[in-house]
Specification:
three-stranded antiparallel sheet, alpha/beta, 32% helix, 15% strand, 10 strands, Rossmann fold
């Protein structure tokens, strides 16, 4: 992991966007993994600015969602395919028909998961994946206890996750779905590069466990320690409980300019 600590989410979004632009400079048809929730929104805004400025184009790109709620109507504003189209596709130049997600209304959810996993493989895999992390250390909807080898699968959402997501449902936890379809930890680890953004003091425990704790199903984000091309982007509050902050700052300050570090 390369740990990057900056004061604001806006500054972190610039670092993330630079990493994504680097991928698309090499391959205009690269496959982007997109995430939902509040964490990636500054990244999407930064990508939009670069598309408008002409320094980035996603016209030839494909994108795959991390996850989707089970059972929400197609037109529900919090269905993740609507979130991604609203917050990402509509503000960039990517073809909306090239943005793919799991079908949370599929009659056979296991078959839908197999289909989606194969679709990612058929596209050549994810070139760069955007991630956030939950307060309990989960990535995508891989809740604590999920196998670190898991592929796309149906997931039961914990009460903690549903409480955290209730803010998107008028604060009513009873409106938050109890199940989702999600890329597995193993699916995520197949991405060639990963950018994870976490901000706020409520993420500090999860960040500490992800970066400095043991690799464990208790914190599925800790599996990212096994990947050799991960940028972990943190504000000061999210990084507050890391014991080796000075080391991470020194490594970042002395890295080769623009380089991905496989540490």
């Amino acid at each position: 992991m390369e740990i990057i600590i900056k004061p604001t989410a806006a500054e972190l979004a610039v670092v993330a966007a630079e990493a994504i632009c680097e991928v698309y400079a090499d391959n205009p048809a690269a496959v982007l993994g997109v995430a939902t929730g509040s964490s990636p929104l500054p990244i999407y805004q930064e990508l939009s600015l670069r598309v408008q400025a002409g320094s980035l184009s996603l016209r030839h790109a494909k994108a795959f969602q991390l996850d989707e709620y089970v059972g929400l109507p197609q037109d529900h504003p919090e269905a993740y395919h609507n979130f991604i189209r609203r917050e990402f596709a509509s503000i960039t130049d990517i073809d909306p028909n090239q943005v793919y997600g799991e079908d949370g209304l599929a009659a056979d959810l296991l078959e839908e998961c197999r289909r989606y996993e194969q679709a990612i493989v058929d596209a050549g895999g994810i070139d760069i994946q955007i991630l956030g992390i939950g307060v309990d250390g989960h990535i995508a909807f891989n809740e604590p206890g999920t196998s670190l080898n898991s592929l796309t699968h149906p997931a039961v959402l914990t009460a903690q996750t549903r409480r955290d997501n209730a803010r998107f449902f008028s604060g009513d936890i009873d409106k938050v779905p109890t199940h989702a379809l999600t890329q597995g930890v193993g699916t995520i680890l197949r991405a060639r590069k990963i950018v994870l953004l976490a901000t706020g003091a409520n993420k500090a425990d999860a960040v500490r466990d992800m970066v400095e704790g043991p690799v464990s199903i208790s914190c599925t984000g800790s599996a990212l320690q096994l990947h050799n091309n991960v940028k972990v982007l943190l504000d000061e509050a999210a990084a507050a409980k890391l014991e080796r902050q000075d080391f991470y700052r020194e490594i970042y300050a002395n890295r080769p300019q623009g380089a991905w570090l496989g540490l």
